[in-house]
Amino acid sequence: MAWLHTWTGLPLGWLLYAVFFTGTLSYYLDEVNAWTRPELHRSAPAPQTAERALQTMQQLAPDAESWTLALPNERQMQVQASWRPAGAPAGRGGQQRAELDAATGQPIAARETRAGNFLYRFHFELYGMPRVWGRWVVAIATLLMFVAILSGVVTHKKIFTEFFTFRPRKGQRSWLDAHNATAVLALPFHLMITFSGLLLFMYMLLPAGINAAYDGDTRAYFAERQQAGRGAGPGAAARVTEPVVAGVPLAPVGPMLAEAQRRWPGREVGSIAVNRPGTSAATVELREHGGTSLVDRGASRRLVFDGVTGAVQAAPAGSEPGVASAVYNVLTAAHLGRFAGPGLRLLLFLCGVVGTVMVATGLVLWVVKRLPERRKAGRTPFGHRLVELLNLGTIGGLSLALAACLWLNRLLPATLAGRADWEIQGFFAVWALAFLHAGLRPARRAWIEQLALATVLFALLPLLNPLTGGLGLWASVPGGAWPVAGFDLAMLLLALVHGAAWRWLVQRGATPSLRSARARSPVLPGAGLKEGSAS
Hints:
There is one protein chain. The protein is α+β, with helices and mostly antiparallel strands. Helix content is 59%, strand content 7%. The protein contains 23 helices and 8 strands. It has helices at 2-9, 13-25, 29-35, 49-60, 115-125, 131-155, 159-163, 172-185, 187-200, 202-205, 208-214, 218-230, 254-263, 323-336, 342-369, 371-377, 382-411, 419-440, 443-467, 473-476, 482-508, 512-520, 527-531; strands at residues 66-70, 79-84, 96-100, 107-108, 269-275, 283-288, 302-306, 312-314. An 8-stranded antiparallel sheet has the order 4-3-2-1-5-6-7-8. Helix 1 runs antiparallel to helix 6 (131-155) and helix 6 (131-155) packs antiparallel against helix 9. The chain is globular and about 90 Å long. 37% of the residues are buried. The model is unreliable at 232-239 and 510-535 (pLDDT under 50).
């Protein structure tokens, strides 16, 4: 089991670190997207937000087949509008989008960026390869991590005792204690996140059932499953046989919102969908913000109104999922962190941080455990030096790449063509430079230099924000712009974490094990051994 734990964790450990790192950040995907578009920072909800947004839609897309407005909430400051022009193809490709000011309803010209969505998609399908290939790679890595977690539980017979034991300044023992503690601290989370990750890949990994039942037509399966989840509501076909008259004004949305508030006390309306606007067949669908149960993946309640008279047409109820679907829904919804409130989202984020640290300490521990071999041999084997380099390039380099991507988001001209691609290219360019730097510099010096640079870059981001058109902390906190303020505070926290690691390395100097090695073998060659392990 110890052998299995080591060799299922190490070969893909660097990939798993990147997946955990970017996946943990994705719990705050909306906040990242908000910060990276400073043009939206001064959008603030007003009592007439919905009415003004609908007035704008009548000007932007008077002939559209449908309008959809995602209203502001605690994680979104603007109105996200989308519409489907007449004759547009089905699917997302046929939709057009705009960001509307929540106070005035007017369109906001926000910069092109994919920073937040890139981090989210990278953690389950990587980048620069066909999406299916990337998902297969991540799925295999997830499966190996699941095996590593289970074998780790078996290997550490005193795992719960060791959780309460930490022996600092003990070299390998300290790293093992840190690895054990972070593994046990969030063990339920680690098991849930890996198993639910495999469930999310279930249709790709185990397609035989669907292929057999639907003759290989997976689209038919998903369409039927989606329809079953929505359920059918009365009145959905109202007035379809009546002649459709154009130029009919839409009923005021205010009374509809009030009716939704009456039916959903303590809940907010999350979105407004208008079908066939400007006609006598118009309908308005209000959807609740968030859901109340993970069993149906937080499906929101809906109210459908007659778009001309404003009368309630239907309150469609979703169907109850079966046992298998309910289990799948609960686990995958927990994995995605959807419908989580601020407290639960913070807990999921902290568990993700602990998981990231667990992977990192496991990678470093592999190097530290082999220091005695290096002392006996009087040199650093190529394999050990390679792992040392990959550790630094992955752990330190990924922090630098993230900081660089965020800096490029603000420093690249807002009107630059393809600027979103430049952000991503900059991310990988800096990451590649971090690996190059790790190969050219002695290990310990490279760790110190990369941690110092990451500390500075993260610490200055909250200052860069107001200097490049964003809302500074002195305005975002009292103004209640928590998506922006929370991101700036998170960057300061990242700076503190990297700064603490940098300070620890500078103050500690060489590890005790390496100091004793130098005393016994003063002429040891090799930069890797001379500078010690990743610690």
